[in-house]
Amino acid sequence: MTQEPRAERIAKWLARSGVASRRDAERMIEEGRIRLNGQPVTHPATFVSDNDIVQVNGEPVAPPQRTRLWRYHKPDAGNNPPRPRRAAHRVFRPARRHAPRDQRRPPRSEQRRAAAADQ
Predict the structure, then answer these.
(1) What is the pLDDT of residues 48-74, one digit of tens each?
(2) Which of 1, 18, 59, 97 lies 20 to 30 angstroms, CA to CA, from 105?
(3) Does domain 8-60 have CATH number 3.60.130.10?
């Protein structure tokens, strides 16, 4: 028995593609900025399949990447911070090095430096 790929709602598809959040995608649909196979989308409950072409403001949108699951085993030594609010920062810092390039986020010091340069 072969399963055909499930279609998903266009707002979720756009969110997974990185275009906008689901709520923003729904607003874009109301504004008439989204097209599916050349036709304007009028309702957020529209479903998108793998063969459909989605456009935002006339530009085609690349399909979302396959969902990935990351499993990370926290090392025992030295990762028991005295303040729990900093625990996630310490645990996931080593994992960032192994993430795919498109998933990496620059360290906070670089983010602050970039924000200061923009002002």
Answers:
(1) 988 899 999 999 999 988 878 878 776
(2) 59
(3) no
